[in-house]
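Good morning,

Both structures are done.
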Amino acid sequence: MSSHRYTLRQLEAFVTAAELLSFTSAADRLALSPSAVSQLVVELESSLGFKLFVRSTRKVSLSAEGKEFYGSAQTVLKHLHLAEVAATDLRNRASGLIRIAAPMVIASTILPPLIRDYTLERPKIVVRIRDAAVEQLTDVVASGEADLAIGPDRPGSDAVNHTPLFSSPWVLWCAPHHPLATQAQVHWADVRAHPLVTAGRDHEISVAQMGVALPEAERIRPREVVDHISTAFGIAAAGLAVTVSPAYVQTWAKRQGLVMRRIVDPEVVRQVCLYQSAHRISSPATTGFAEYLIAGLKRPQRKRASSPGAKA
């Protein structure tokens, strides 16, 4: 027997009448006339090939076949309701899995509070963070390993769209007792006069690009390149060197007791972007979360948080 021989409306009329053992009461619940409920049940009985109710002038009761069929009909309606709830959640971007890649600092300081606030109102949304180096951000989105990525601006890719979120100037971090800590702001020439440690190949390249227009003798070169920003901060906290990074890492830096100083002549700004696939259609959940990130990270307080003051 194929399912197209009876309708969900017929099943609903049968289950409601079976629960209430009254076509009149079932009609009231379904906002139909008693004759309409009776007709729906008759049509279902015709499709099934057996009687569902034993009717008399005074009452209605389930037949033996009706009692057997009742559980199956209930299950169909239950699953239909669950499907409707799932469709509503998807339509309202209220459920689904989202995978977002980010460098360590963003993954540990910027994303968690945003995810917490977003999922408090959408408990069926699951957001999973994937740690990724800056150099991997566009690759993991292009390959489908992540639905979204957030991090410093990377060279363009036809496979990935990027949306600017906020800008963050490069700043210097040093120990409170370091000579540069006494200055309200520093120049790149000041940085060149002290041992410098940078974190990762991305920072090393960025620092090199900042001084590319300078004469060879004036260019800034790190004494040491370490893999993780936390290591660079530890070295700086011990007074062994200074380090530079975008200001948005300040949550980590302040935990080490480091002092932040603005670097001028020139001031160099790093753009942080959201990356999404240019070719795959995003799920409603991913689209909703992306819109939330774009709106949330462009708020004035976020911009203020990314701008360094004279004191840290």
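Second structure follows.
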Amino acid sequence: MNADTDTMTLMAGRVRDAARAGTPLRIRGGGSKDFYGQALTGEVLDMGAYSGVISYEPSELVVTVRGGTPLAELEALLAGQGQCLPFEPPHYGPNATVGGMVASGLSGPARASSGAVRDYLLGAVLLNGKGECLTFGGQVMKNVAGYDVSRLMAGTLGTLGVLLELSLKVLPVAPGEATLMCSGLSQQKALDLLNRWGGQPLPLNASCWVRDESAAPVQDFLFVRLRGALAAVEAACPRMIADVQAAGGQAVPMEQPQAGDDWNACREQTLPFFAQPPSLDACLWRLSVPQTAPAMDLPYAPLVEWHGGLRWLWAPASAAAQLRQLAAQAGGHATLFRRAALMPANLPVFTPLSPVQSRIQRELRKQFDPAGIFNPGRMPIDG
């Protein structure tokens, strides 16, 4: 057997031993997203040794890698061929892995226009809670008859299995790109423009509205990124600048290197907005709502991404009920994304599931992990 087969065999044996003993296992890639989820419990099952690219066909726009492969390594490989992961997965640290990318299900600024992690997941090989190696999907889009189990793995935080291999669809880097910095637009005016642009044939790729409270007076900014054919981007810019001016704001194109750095900072949450406030009870909340939802009556100014569909907010844990009610009224939900230094240990991180959703997740868990050994307590099904 080769080293990879040996590693897989050892992991399968460890899973079987843990299932027999009822020993919880915590599946871990690079640990960059350990902060995310309800709780971390169990013995660490380190995926770092199971890494590497299995196959890459640039002409077919598909790559297959092992779960422990560093995300930065995969992105560098794709960039060398002028290709990318269009959903811009956040790293949140230098040790992020491809398995962690899928398990967390998190996407970056382009998600609203380009799709989510699950939309690019073609196939998966995983170890279930019995130590069995299961294969789902393949390396083409139309490869599933029945339930698409491989895409089910996105966002499950490792509660259904150990992700051994992942096949992903990739895309060429867009030839044209531009970023407009718009000032003087309130949150509602920005949302109105984004909704209007969303109904037009514009190469709108990402957006970010934020309030700069460090300035005097306070200023509101909307950043809009365009990606696509060079001619389409060039034609859209003056048209959108005119729309911003008609709404009472001003818009100017940004220099591309600075714009690229800013979008990466948004993706990695290193913008000033994401700096931990001095208050020890400040939590970072993630409100997922329809893009058409109006500006919400939130206790603090948010940062708005995804053309209005994602709203980040710093607020105390005590605001949980209020935030979840506001999100539900808008047709969405609220997640406690980053905890405060001081907060109740039993506060649900995720919006509680409905009875039907809970039953579905429990039944899925029973099928994939009958002994309940994988990442127990990390998802609401364990609550």
